[in-house]
Amino acid sequence: MTAARLVARCVRGIEEVLAEEVCGLGTVQAVGHREVRFTARADPAVLGLTTADDVFVIAAEAGGIGRARADLNRLRCAVAAADLERALRDRERCGGMPGVPTLDVSASVLGRRAFNRYDLEDAAGTVLARRLGLPYRSRRADARPPAGGLSWRLTVVDDRVTVALRIPGRPLHRRSYKAASVPGTLHPPLAAAILRVAEIGAGHVVLDPCCGAGTLPIEAAGTGARVVGSDVDPAAVAAAVANGADLPVTWSVADAGALPLRDDTVDRVVVNPPWARQVVPRGRLAAHPHRLWREVSRVLAPSGRIVALLPDRHPPAGLLAERTIPVSLFGSHPVITVLRPG
Ligand SMILES: C[S@@+](CC[C@H](N)C(=O)[O-])C[C@H]1O[C@@H](n2cnc3c(N)ncnc32)[C@H](O)[C@@H]1O
């Protein structure tokens, strides 16, 4: 069987982490802005990419998409010539559901042009609709296409367009477990990236002392580690318990400024602490936020590692930053930071 040509998209900053995960499935062809292109066996395993926001089959690529409105014709020609049968077949082999009722197109375009994203979407959408015999649902005027359609994605960078077809029915970042939420809850693929950077091994004790709705512990539950999630807010713990029902995670209400754990007993601390922006520190951290770091350093085993999502590049006092990965997410710029007690 020939390999499928695929592209996985992700949060800005974690492209290399995603590329590393992709290596377990296939061969990385290119790592670019918010994407990793790769070839892999067309198999539902691609839907298991934890650090990707979404994954697509590449149906066509073409050049000559300049700034002029007439260049939209080159896009129409590229879509008219694309091997749609192969794209649809690879999508289904990768676990995409057949029998979709409609199609929609979403475009991103960098640089000033004489056309906008809706012009691009409608140019490709009308050709796709004719070739596939499906009604095209435009996103013009911010209309939301109905769920369950065949979703196409156009990416225009410089003068090149990539036409790609989403494999799952809804984006990979929308985890089915996440029914209950809390303010400041983590984007699941970012939580998955934090866990990959933490290099969790089977048998490790992994602690998230500010677990909120439980994203980090739930994403860690399949690693074979002993996972513990705690939070000072009983409502947050209730949300985590609801989201993580039936998963092997130990949940508790605890103040991260006075953790009910013995010294040197935790192999990995993964944490998205309250930064006093979206979420204020409470309990013992309200007056002394630094206690968090004193406590996680106390419970951490000598060979342990802390991976935190921090508001900037500066490590907390008393800790050394071994690796930093700045990310960009919904207008904020936090930093995944690997810390060791200094
Ligand atoms: C940014 S949120 C964490 C979100 C979480 N990672 C998620 O995905 O839902 C910060 C969390 O810290 C908790 N928190 C605030 N003060 C705390 C303290 N003293 N001890 C433990 N948790 C605390 C808040 O209740 C909140 O759930």
Describe this structure in words.
The chain has 342 residues and is α/β, with parallel strands linked by helices. It folds into two domains: 4-166, VC0802-like; 188-341, Rossmann fold (3-Layer(aba) Sandwich), CATH 3.40.50. Helix content is 25%, strand content 28%. It has helices at residues 15-22, 72-81, 84-93, 117-132, 188-198, 215-220, 234-243, 284-287, 291-299; strands at residues 4-9, 26-32, 35-40, 54-62, 103-109, 150-157, 160-166, 205-208, 226-231, 249-253, 266-271, 300-310, 319-326, 335-341. The strands form two sheets. The chain has a seven-stranded mixed beta sheet with strand order 2-3-1-4-7-6-5, with helices on one face. Strands 10-9-8-11-12-14-13 form a seven-stranded mixed beta sheet. Strand 9 (226-231), helix 7 (234-243) and strand 10 (249-253) form a beta-alpha-beta unit. The longest helix has 16 residues, at 117-132. The radius of gyration is 22 Å and the shape is elongated. The structure holds S-adenosylmethionine.
CATH class call of the largest domain: Alpha Beta
Instruction: Give a count of the beta strands, DSSP E runs of length 2 or more.
Output: 14
- Count structural domains: 2
Strand content: 25-35%
